[in-house]
Amino acid sequence: HLNRPTSRPKVVVTRNLGPDVMPLLLERGDLEVVLWPEDRGCDRNWLLQNAVGATALIVMVGADKIDTEVLDSAGPSLQVVSTMSVGYEHIDIAAAVKRGIKVGYTPDVLTDAVADLTVMLALMAGRNVRQTMKVVDDGQWPTCPWSPFLFCGPQFSASPSRPVRTAGFIGFGRIAQATLARLIPFGFTNCIYSSNPSSTPKTSRDLELKAKLGLASLASVTLDEVAARSDVVFVLAPGGSGTRHLVNEAFLRKMKRSSVLVNTSRGSLVDSDALAKVLSEGLIWGAGLDVVEGEPQVTADHPLVKEPRCAILPHIGSATLETRIDMARLAAENALSAIDGKPMPASLNL
Ligand code: DGY
């Protein structure tokens, strides 16, 4: 497609969006669709070359950095950058605003998938899933002598000895609230959260949510209180410089020894070295991570990978077939709506 003169608006897509969604783009004869042809992250040079003269870029989180270099390459024809993700820290939003470029993203459609996985990681971290699966994988199923307390961890559900369970959230948006709803049957009757200090208190939202979920308490508190009072701390705030290392050594040292940390948002929120340290010192029980700072460069000798009570997944929070198709469709619809001059189904309020 390079250098081919065309009067049709060009849509550059950095990954194949699959058979359910690609036809939405390809069947639009009035558009020129340029697709990165390989099943791996799009090469930066390919993107820079193909962005030239584009009207829309449909891009991926983690792989594509949409900075001023890419925006400059595209030039004044660019109307919209649509990312197939709810996170958008890979896009230079300020630069997009300056140029009047719209930005589309994919909130809501992934909330349930990520909330499901968040609960799964909390259970995995508490119940020694990493160690116990390894024992089986290695053909070392424990035989006799039967050991009453082998592989025991703290119970996730409320129990007669610990009837009050408190869920703590760093960030309390859509995914956090969906996670909280899933925790109710486990007996989490108390919820505390710490959110963006510059946002206005959500008193009526909280009263409504408390009543709807039948919680004993729901309160916005300081970060320190989230650390000290939670049985499980869920990290679910956006990435970026404002939230970097909110979970640092001081935070982790304030957590209960029996508590678990779960991060399904962005790796940058948690100081990996500090987490590895407190895990190795037994200062918290365990961790469940879907994201790690510096990913995808997380090798077997990473300090967190070496911690047996740290269950780590390679950023698969939204990886259900249903959700990924919905995300791809929303990314395509965002781009097409912007091109057609219609309201985008999910655009950032720039
Ligand atoms: C997102 O959408 O931002 C997730 O991290 C990828 O599923």
UniProtKB/TrEMBL annotation:
Gene Ontology molecular function terms on file: glyoxylate reductase (NADPH) activity; hydroxypyruvate reductase [NAD(P)H] activity; NAD binding
InterPro entries, per database record: D-isomer_2-hydroxyacid_DH (IPR050223), D-isomer_2_OHA_DH_cat_dom (IPR006139), D-isomer_DH_CS (IPR029753), D-isomer_DH_NAD-bd (IPR006140), NAD(P)-bd_dom_sf (IPR036291)
Domain D-isomer specific 2-hydroxyacid dehydrogenase catalytic as annotated: residue spans: 11-349
Pfam families: 2-Hacid_dh, 2-Hacid_dh_C
Keyword flag Oxidoreductase: yes
A GO CC term assigned to this protein in UniProt: cytosol
Residue intervals passing through the bilayer: none
Domain of life: Eukaryota
Keywords: Oxidoreductase
Domain D-isomer specific 2-hydroxyacid dehydrogenase NAD-binding: 119-317
Family as reported in the entry's similarity comment: Belongs to the D-isomer specific 2-hydroxyacid dehydrogenase family.
Name under which the protein is recorded: Predicted protein
